[in-house]
Design a protein that fits this description.
Mean pLDDT: 87
Strand order of the largest sheet: 2-1-3
Number of strands: 3
Radius of gyration: 18 Å
Structural class: mainly alpha
Largest sheet: 3 strands, antiparallel
Number of helices: 6
Distance between the termini: 28 Å
Strand content: 5-15%
Number of domains: 1
Helix content: over 70%
């Protein structure tokens, strides 16, 4: 089933979710950190943190290494939306947007106001957070619209 066969509320919600997922993916490549004159994307920052940190937390190591998959996961969600598997795409997009948005918002809030050698640049985390919020709202709306569209009308 193609996405074009769904009612308008489902399509609009799916388009909002897709736009949000695109912003999440793009936001990861924007600058997140400034170290002197060097700007680093979220992926570069995660790589540096993984190499430098003497972390004794295996889950943190997995999270830092797995951050690179966020754009791929966004692309997979978008592809699943486009082929018309709305519920699957929306459910997966809720998880991806929640994870990416939480990391981005935490990075922005915890790093804002810093005047040290390494500072947070607002462009990347805010774009990712905003995109995650839009994708989350669009995905939940798509799930709700899909549910109401699937319900038979009672007379």
């Amino acid at each position: 089933m193609s996405i074009a066969r769904y009612p308008a509320p489902v399509l609009v919600s799916a388009l909002f979710a897709i736009a949000g997922l695109l912003a999440v993916g793009i936001g990861g490549f924007l600058p997140w950190l400034r170290s002197g004159a060097v700007l680093r994307s979220s992926f570069e920052a995660a790589g540096v943190a993984g190499r430098l940190g003497p972390w004794d937390a295996p889950l943190l190591d997995v999270a830092l290494a797995g951050w690179i998959a966020i754009p791929l996961l966004c692309a997979i969600c978008i592809a699943v939306y486009v082929i018309g598997l709305i519920r699957t795409a929306a459910g997966f997009a809720v998880i991806v947007s929640f994870l990416a948005g939480t990391v981005a918002l935490a990075a922005y809030v915890l790093g804002s106001g810093g005047s040290g050698v390494v500072t947070v640049v607002a462009a990347g985390p805010l774009t990712t957070s905003f995109g995650a919020a839009v994708a989350l709202v669009g995905s939940v709306a798509a799930l709700l619209a899909r549910r109401s569209a699937a319900r038979p009308a009672h007379r």
